[in-house]
Amino acid sequence: MPKDYYQTLGISKTASQDEVKKAYRKLAHKYHPDKGTGDEAKFKDINEAYQVLSDEKKRSNYDTYGSADFNGSGFGGAGGDNANFWDFFGGNRGQYTQGGGMEDIFDMFSGAFGGNYGQPQYEERAKGEDLYLEVKINHKDLGQAKTYEYEVMGKCNECNGTRVAPGSKMITCKTCNGNGQVRQTSRTPFGAFSRVGICPECKGQGHLPEKECQNCKATGRVKIRKRIDIHLPNDLEDNYTIIVPRGGNAGKSARPSGDLVINIKLK
């Protein structure tokens, strides 16, 4: 038989949320195991009843189906052996059920696998990619200055790397409402299963240009050629490496450039 949570708290089915809370506090104070009048079994039942009746969604499901979850049995059932599941994750059922039933279970696991719904999950690199340039020289080149050219992704001059067309602005993504993630929930006879992924519209950034820069195709950077002058010391050794800070590809969305790593080899 399903548990009568209203009877457990001593309230009617039409009780308001304030009445639910007052009844819970009164009974929890009376039957807390640390009290002289404590009763651990009753205290557990009182907490279970409160976790369901204090949540509008669970209360509605309970009133309709006799269970906090819509299927009324199995993994999502209220009370019964399911308490062992919550005990396995710290013994505080309310910590994981306050406000979402089965969906909260997936939120709980998503943190362990890189999820974190409500905050942007994907962020672009903090800087652009590093570039590696290999230069071969002769011994006669030692002691001289040599000029080398190379291709690099530079900041777009039209939008200054912001990806936004001149005269336009950056706006909040309407697909994910600025979260950077989208959630798809499907209901089955076994419960509600949620899947969280990167927003396909803003690529997880939570915002996007109102009008995209056409010069860089909304990447914030374009391919350019750069020149660099290198002075070669007389005593330069083979396989010598020089690192040029910010000499690499410009970062996306106006982020800093990567480094240029030059490896000099003697023929």
Automatic annotation (TrEMBL):
Zinc finger (CR-type): 143-225
GO terms for MF: heat shock protein binding; unfolded protein binding; zinc ion binding
GO terms of biological process kind: DNA replication; protein refolding
SUPFAM superfamilies, sorted: Chaperone J-domain, DnaJ/Hsp40 cysteine-rich domain, HSP40/DnaJ peptide-binding domain
Residue span, J domain: 4-66
CR-type domain sequence ranges: 143-225
Coiled coil feature spans: none
Keywords recorded for this protein, A-Z: Chaperone, Cytoplasm, DNA replication, Metal-binding, Repeat, Stress response, Zinc, Zinc-finger
SMART domains the UniProt entry points to: DnaJ
A GO CC term attached to the entry: cytoplasm
Domain of life of the organism encoding this protein: Bacteria
InterPro entries (UniProt xref): DnaJ_domain, DnaJ_domain_CS, HSP40/DnaJ_pept-bd, HSP_DnaJ_Cys-rich_dom, HSP_DnaJ_Cys-rich_dom_sf, J_dom_sf
Protein family: Belongs to the DnaJ family.
Protein name as catalogued: Chaperone protein DnaJ
Biological source species: Candidatus Yanofskybacteria bacterium GW2011_GWD1_39_16
